[in-house]
Specification:
alpha+beta; FAD/NAD(P)-binding domain; D-Amino Acid Oxidase, Chain A, domain 2; Arc Repressor Mutant, subunit A; five-stranded antiparallel β-sheet; three-stranded antiparallel β-sheet; about 25% helix
């Protein structure tokens, strides 16, 4: 009754009533904003080059500057074993395990009410069908071990595998309503378990490695463990009595009351200018996402903060307008606005004067 669309061939299921879903980008950005509010300095587009043991701690060298610190936390995903190797002998290996997904349009959103898992395999939890916090359906992943730590390509063969297995859970899935395919890399450790510990031969260096699924669900508990390890290392840590628990309010215009919408438009008329019609995102929300303490500087940065480009057209209409808003608000040229990473250019110059 709670999942009427389940494939009729299914014979039994286990209900986990406390299970839920979260927006991974929104959660991560919210935590980072709160950290910056409380004194953390965030350096982006910064490549680690070397870590050197020095008296009382470590010297961390990057492509931008050097840092000296008493404690290093190695939470570097598929590169965790490489960074561990800068200070100690190899004790584990990380294998990039690629998983590919379908994102289905909100027209499919009523097919499931919970995260639907199949029986797990030796490679992981298997292909799932889940609602997202925004009303889409997410289908995937497969599991494919690779050697390339940057390979986020999708392939027809593996996406077909996902489709074939997903319909065993929900037969009515309509993949013609797919609006996006993507792949991610899980950090599969040779230990087959999370690695959360101070390195014995490198005091003051904490590995937080091999955090594959369910890493996002586990992150708050892992953080508490890391705090305790760091406190033992530093020795003089005191509770911050001035800690700010709440970040600046972020408004989702379309979900606000009519009264609040009117107030927002009265305060800033840009909240009355709809930029993304698929997701009903206003210019006011986009400008706010750019000027927050961990503000967006790229097209995908805006997308992950307030969702323009997440809808059916995937930014086909609103993408150029978002570029213009970013350039205007950041005081940059259109050519300087990139899609995501520093080298992911969109425009290279004008074709006509």
């Amino acid at each position: 009754k709670i999942e009427p669309k389940i494939n009729k061939n299914a014979v039994s299921a286990l209900l986990a009533p406390t299970g839920g879903v979260v927006g991974p980008w929104e959660m991560t950005i919210a935590l980072m904003e709160n950290a910056v509010d409380n004194g953390v300095k965030l350096d982006l587009n910064t490549e680690l080059l070397d870590i050197e043991k020095i008296e009382g701690g470590y010297k961390v060298s990057t492509n931008k500057r050097d840092y000296e610190t008493r404690c290093v936390i190695n939470a570097s995903g598929v590169y965790a074993d490489k960074i561990h190797g800068m200070v100690a002998e190899e004790s584990f290996k990380i294998t990039p395990r690629r998983g590919q997904y379908f994102v289905l349009d909100k027209t499919q959103g009523e097919l499931v009410n919970h995260v639907i898992f199949q029986c797990p395999t030796k490679l992981g939890k298997g292909v799932l069908v889940t609602p997202t916090v925004h009303g889409n359906i997410l289908v995937g992943p497969d599991a494919e071990d690779l050697s390339d730590r940057k390979n986020l390509a999708t392939t027809a063969e593996r996406l077909e595998f996902v489709k074939e297995h997903a319909v065993k859970s929900i037969e009515e899935l309509n993949f013609r309503e797919g609006i996006r395919n993507f792949a991610g890399l899980r950090a599969q450790p040779s230990t087959n378990d999370f690695i959360v510990e101070e390195v014995k031969e490198a005091k003051g260096f904490i590995d937080v490695a091999g955090i594959k699924s369910p890493g996002l669900s586990s992150a708050p508990a892992i953080a508490l463990d890391v705090v305790e390890i760091a406190k033992r290392i530093l020795g003089d840590v005191k509770l911050n009595k001035e800690f700010k628990p709440n970040r600046k309010k972020h408004y989702e215009f379309i979900t606000e009351t009519a009264k609040k919408k009117a107030e927002l438009i009265a305060e800033d008329k840009r909240y009355g200018n709809m930029i993304c019609r698929c997701e009903n995102i206003t210019e006011g929300e986009i400008v706010d996402s750019i000027h927050r303490n961990v503000g967006a500087t790229t097209v995908d940065g805006v997308k992950k903060r307030c969702r323009p480009g997440m809808g059916r057209c995937q930014g086909g209409f609103c993408g150029p307008k978002i570029q213009e808003i970013l350039a205007r608000e950041l005081g940059k040229s259109l050519e300087e606005i990139v899609l995501d990473k520093a080298d992911s250019y969109i425009l290279t110059g004008e074709t006509k004067k």
